[in-house]
Amino acid sequence: MSDDEFRPAQMISERLAERIRTEGSLSVAAFMAEALFHPMAGFYATKDPLGAANDFITAPEISQMFGELLGLWAAECWMQMGAPSRFELIELGPGTGRMMSDMLRAGRAAPGFLDAVHVTLIEASPALKMVQGQTLASASVPINWAKDFDKAPSGPAVVIGNEFLDCLPIRQAIRHKGQWRERVVTLHPEDEARFVYGLGPVLGEADMAFIAPGLREADDGTLVELRPGDQQQIDQLAARFDRDPGYALFVDYGSAKPETGDTLQAIRAHQKVDPLDAPGTADLTAWVDFDRLLRLGVDAGLSAFGPMTQGDFLTELGIEQRAAVLSRSVDEAGQAKLKRQMHRLVSPEDMGTLFKLAAFSSEGLPPAPGIAPFKRSR
Ligand code: SAH
Questions:
Q1: Residue 50 has pLDDT above 80, yes or no
Q2: Which of 144, 158, 335, 338 is the most exposed place for a label (fewest CB within 10 A)?
Q3: From CA 212, how far away is CA 184, in angstroms rounded?
Q4: How confident is the model at residue 363 (pLDDT cuts 50, 70, 90)?
Q5: What is the pLDDT of residues 73-109, one digit of tens each?
Q6: Residue nearest (by alpha carbon) to ligand 1 atom 11
Q7: pLDDT confidence of 51, banded at 50, 70, 90?
Q8: Of ligand 1's atoms, which has the minimum distance to the CA of residue 229?
Q9: What angle do CA 360, 256, 150 make, to 5 degrees?
Q10: How far is the CA of 91 from the centre of ligand 1 (A)?
Q11: CA-nearest residue, atom 20 of ligand 1
């Protein structure tokens, strides 16, 4: 690590340590928010962590086919809304802008789609916003940015987020002596340069709503994750889709059933590292609980679809046919590369099964294309 990369990291550690000394232990969410989004030194705030040469790689960075197929999905949604002459394509956490650029290129296949579309990118990181501006510099449709989802223009919309929900700050709770206690981050008693987990306050009644009913009386030692960010996102979506018609699609890694256990993970330079080590220098994410996400949607009055695996979804949208078309214009090495990319996206040993999706729509619209309606299991 070079000196100027090291200093911001020091800065976050020192800031967090100072907060713990003055305010007491922090929730995992507070730790995560600071590590990812501190305006000067946060992991996303300062650099572009995406891509083969950087910290981690996502589906749109693996292959153009991912964004292209989602572009066709968005165009289909637009048609199902009656092909309005103006509509909003809103992306949450657009990373490098690659996916949006691939979506728009594919959208040419639907006559009138590109004349209607206005893009809004919801991005918290100034550094990534710049990268997005470069990627989309030659786009032929209007592109705007907003910091928050509820600042996006109103009107019929398609909302998409790939690997967005997994980086919303989570809280964790541990069952201890028959009570749920917040899991907190504090300083190591003998070495104040290290962060360690501790047991915090007993969860209040409002917080218990974040824990699946079947888990509320779990055995001592059980750990659950609370995802207040999902709740906020769903509430904002429901408010929007109550006023204006729309479809939303979230793709992420996670489980289809409520699970217990610590899923917070840190990735630095493609390696898993300790989430509490050197905050700001690694990506911190946690599994999305798709069952809970979909239930939140239904409870908020949305129509809900999924969960479905990424492998099944991309197959349904025609990734094999798309790969065959692209294969025609490349040499053998190019064809082998397309095959490898497709395999990474759909095969169960790779992203195909771990990555899942959930879709939502305003009530009264035709079902989300390609995804079966959500059925509550219990
Ligand atoms: N969708 C991209 C990037 C995923 S990384 C891809 O698949 O490659 C997560 C992205 O979400 C980054 O762009 C990050 O800066 C952004 N992000 C995370 N939390 C956010 C928040 N609360 N508000 C806006 N953007 C956020």
A1: no
A2: 144
A3: 21
A4: very high
A5: 999 999 999 999 999 999 999 999 999 999 999 999 9
A6: 93
A7: low
A8: 22
A9: 35
A10: 9
A11: 124
Q: Which residues contact 56 (CB under 8 A, 6 or more apart)?
A: 49, 50, 267, 270, 283
Taking residues 35-60, report their average pLDDT: 79
Q: 99 C-alpha vs ligand 1 centroid, how far in Å?
A: 12
* Index of the ligand 1 atom closest to the CA of residue 93: 11
pLDDT score of 126: 87
Q: How far apart are CA 308 and CA 10, in angstroms?
A: 41
Ligand 1 midpoint to CA 123 (Å): 6
The ligand 1 atom nearest the CA atom of 125: 15
Question: What is the average pLDDT value for the chain, to the nearest integer?
Answer: 93
How far does residue 22's CA lie from ligand 1's centre (Å)?
Answer: 31
Closest CA to 304 of 232, 222, 247: 247
**Among protein residues, the one whose CA lies closest to atom 2 of ligand 1:** 95
What mean pLDDT do residues 241-250 have?
98
Ligand 1 binding pocket (C-beta < 6 A) is 44, 50, 58, 60-61, 93-95, 99, 122-125, 128, 162-164, 167
